[in-house]
Please model this.
Amino acid sequence: MVTVELINKLSEASKYLSNNDKTLEGNELESLSKQLQEVNGSKEKLEEIKKNIIIRCDVRWLGDIYIKEMGSPYKWWNFLGNVKALAEKL
Model:
């Protein structure tokens, strides 16, 4: 299911960011993950969350952050692209 995978990827991204001194950005993604878990069938709320995930998982917002666990900016960019693609499928 796309939603479960997206929630997991958002949590993973949040941990990467927090581990690399980007706690604010990590907290924002974790908040979106929690909101997604609690959406309760509201299409309007789901669309709002989806839009926020797509905006925040764009390389223009987080792409300039070096994630040491990834070892390469390209791996981080691909990871963000995968998260964004999952959100677009909602």
